[in-house]
């Protein structure tokens, strides 16, 4: 091995690489939506607490190793910097750990932590020549330098390349100063050699070997920074998808939102066929009411109605397919197949009817006008899938049960009933364990507008 007299190519490219990584880091942070940025920040705060505990473990290990290592000097003869450095670092680590539980650590504090980490390590290494009463070049061969990579790797836990780069550059600069101290502390004898055997068997300094250490530190730092840059992209993407999934559940049912998030590709023309139950709800006489009431009162009534009905549908494993003005269409077993779709639908219907009557009584007791809720359930084979065109898709259900449920809901006005179900849906629900909350009334061979064949019905309420 010979002394290195010029920077190798990897070091020549470092400034550009550092600039690209820092710019990419800043760009990623800048384009994140605020809600995603908050979630990433929470993840990073948790990481800083983990780093704090690991740093505490490191300083305790350093303390134990120093206490166990043999001393070749008397305590009253020689100044011992290591105990003071370890005590100061222990105090700083405890402060840092405590602060990480109480607040978000500022960037300047994290950079300061990196500088103190490296300072502790290099003070410890520097003290070796005092501890063993050797010339300064003695500490250049200390294997404790390998701890540098622990401190650099700790910063990788945060998923930000800039802190990894800061740790690596600080370590490289620190070791460079350590080498500089060795070759300048005694100008008359810099102890530099070009002979590898002499270097290995004495306290001589081989500059090429020290440059190799710096190159290794910078190379590992660069690789970690690149890996962190790619991992951060995946982290941000994961957090963004998680936030999007939560937002989607506000516009779609949770089952549909989950399908959108986890599907490889969503396109028109793909559908799933399964047995399901369809529930339609409607406010009877809402349109005339809306025409004579102030807009704010109409929208308040509609919002209260939906707030009462929707949780009951979801409680019984139903999915809201769409809001149709004052109408609500819900599906049971369409987006995700179940063995109790009909029973779930009728249990939801029973609870909805009771809740609707109580809600109507409360509204009228408040001195506001209200109208009754109608409901209908039909069951059968449906197709669930995406419809529309490529830039505007919508998940929905298609099938005879869908149309029949809508027509049955309107048929309530003809019969003066509040809730109807097809006999098929009722029988299927009974087979699935459903028991009606109130006595039912059978309506065989009912004629329904828009339906050619008579339909056997059950009057639920």
TrEMBL record:
UniProt xrefs under PROSITE patterns: GUANYLATE_CYCLASE_2
Annotated transmembrane regions: 50-69, 81-97, 109-132, 138-157, 164-184, 204-228
SUPFAM superfamilies assigned to the protein according to its UniProt record, in alphabetical order: Nucleotide cyclase (SSF55073)
Coiled-coil intervals, chain numbering: none
Keyword Membrane: yes
Keywords, comma-separated and alphabetical: Membrane, Transmembrane, Transmembrane helix
Span of domain Guanylate cyclase: 277-409
Pfam families referenced in this protein's UniProt entry, alphabetically: Guanylate_cyc (PF00211)
SMART domains per UniProt: CYCc
Protein name in UniProt: Adenylate/guanylate cyclase domain-containing protein
Biological source species: Rhodovibrio sodomensis
